[in-house]
Amino acid sequence: MKAAPASKHRRSCPPNQRREIDFKNHCIGPSCVTLIAGPCSVESESQIFETAALVFKAGATVLRGGAFKPRTSPYDFQGLGEEGLQYLKAAATAHGLLTVSEVMDPRDVQLVAAYVDIVQVGSRNMQNFALLKAVGSLTKPVLLKRGFAATYQEFLMASEYILQAGNPDVILCERGIRTFETMTRNTLDIAAVPMLKSLTHLPVIVDPSHGTGLREMVPAMTYAAIASGADGVMVEVHPRPDESISDAQQTISAQTLMEMVPVMAAVRRAVMSAS
Ligand code: PEP
Ligand code: MN
Question: Does the reported pTM lie above 0.90?
Fold first, then answer.
């Protein structure tokens, strides 16, 4: 059956019709706030094992870490590839964490899916239609990041490519858009959360790390994301943030993450009890 275009869904999705993605020990959807945390890139076996232990202790349920990295410069670290995926999986398994990592090439979809629980399509590939169709054939959830110049409509149409190919488990991620502002890396569009939740039944999460590019902004924007009704957040965390090979400026410490978690829970409680 052809998926109805997103424009036809311009009404509030009733809470009982929202998509909830079930894993063995965790769900992603409206009944919980999912905390996805980990480094921008898997840099080494010891770095990802150390990070996994720290983010698990803080309360994260999903470990992130890029192995195939979309870098602006071809001379920058491109990721460890399959070796990185092996380390990511092993580190997560040690703590019962789920994993997410990006795939950039349709030819790598099966390889990445063999290692991770959630396959990520990054901002730069949101309209890579061959890639969207390829991840649409998976039986694993896909975390689809909003293109940095994409409208809500274009974002939703990109998700429809995955849904139409037969994969119902798409998680939408707002990660900031490019505007005239230059002090932040991107402008985090918090309005995307209630807007997307009114247009689709899919879970919506927020990435305040890429959304701002500045680690000082990450706690406040995380709380804003929760207050706006996000089903989760994805944050970049490193045992020694300044030593991160990629995206050091926007990477927070495990200590900061630990301090954020009770505030996130309090914000969620406040919003839930008032609505
Ligand atoms: C990432 O999450 O690793 C990433 C590269 O993010 P984005 O695609 O949003 O730039
Ligand atoms: Mn990054």
Answer: yes
